[in-house]
Specification:
Blueprint: E1 3-11, E2 14-21, E3 30-38, H1 41-48, E4 58-59, E5 63-71, H2 77-80, E6 87-91, E7 102-105, E8 107-108, E9 117-119, E10 125-127, E11 130-134, H3 141-144, H4 147-159, E12 167-171, H5 175-187, E13 192-196, H6 200-209, E14 214-215, H7 217-223, E15 229-234, H8 248-255, E16 256-264, H9 276-282, E17 285-287, H10 298-314, H11 319-322, E18 323-328, H12 332-340, E19 349-353
Parallel strand pairs: 8-11, 12-13, 12-15, 13-14, 15-16, 16-17, 18-19
Antiparallel strand pairs: 1-2, 1-4, 3-5, 3-7, 3-19, 5-6, 6-11, 9-10
Helix pairs in contact: 4-5, 4-10
Pfam family, one: ADH_N
Domain Alcohol dehydrogenase-like N-terminal: 28-89
Family: Belongs to the zinc-containing alcohol dehydrogenase family.
Length: 355
Amino acid sequence: MTTMKAMQLLAPRKTILAELPIPATPADGLLLKTRCVSICSTDISFYEGHLYPSEYPIVLGHEYLGEVVDIGPDLDAESAGVRIGDRIVYWGQTDFDGFAEYRTLRPIFAGQVKEDVFWADRNFYDDRRAAAVRVPDELGDLEASFIEPTTGALRSVLTNPPQVGDRVLILGTGPIGIIAGSVIRRLLAPNSIVSVDANLYRNGYAEEHFSQRAYLPEELIAEVDDNSFDYVFDALPTVKVDDEEKDPRRVAMRKLRPRGKYVLYGASQEMQKFDTWLMLAKGINVSAAPFDVTSFPMHKTANVIESAMNMLATGIVDGKRLLSTVCRFDDFDELVRILENYRFTTDLKTIVDFR
């Protein structure tokens, strides 16, 4: 077999099921046969056009689990501990190529220091290698595909952690908000941790996983005093509201104390509104974990992804309860429907199953 099936995005909201060549194994890399890919808000932002590549078509999907089917001759597989049949998860800045039956990877594992840096088309230095981890037998395929989003949330929390005893607000309780909230509540000793989301069902999930109180936006405005929080973790997607006074980011900044910390996780290439007056008047510290590998090298993320895997394996992050839906890759019409309706779902994680 020399070809594979892949879901290509030709333009925003325009997809096809394409027949593409199976990629050649990199000399210092791996060829992976796809097992599971969980759908990420980043995939949806590309699908909807809030994020966009330098050129089309692209293959979406990056919360990825694959099986090693070939090893390049220049990869020191013995020292890396990689064998044919191993299951691999990766974290990289280039958010493409998962919704295909095969993909290649040039991995960096924890403890290794390698780089292949280039200037990306989205204004940061990227690495052609990706942080990777071998998945142990005790972690099932469906949970293992959540290692990647756990890595992203953990990079952000570790770079900009709350202080012990902080009053924490998680802004948005999709999967990333739930993962970040779970890590903060179980490991970082907050005084309190609450959340806000416009989705009533996701508020229920948040309270199951970590949140001591999950507010609807109107409840947060009416019931919580300004200057009530020390730390805000912003896991919201692209936001558009009619009443700017009720913009959730502006509301969160009002609820944040002077010199409080506001951590931005999600991003959009569409401009989003931040209240510069509140940032100045209150001295709010806005920060993020950088994608730029000259600031946060990929070999450091390789250590983070191993920790993320351990958090799922030990239940610090409850992967079983993050899973809502499994869609087979060969059900192309259903997959398109899921992408089209993602913003309206009451689900948490949807996994595309290639097995």
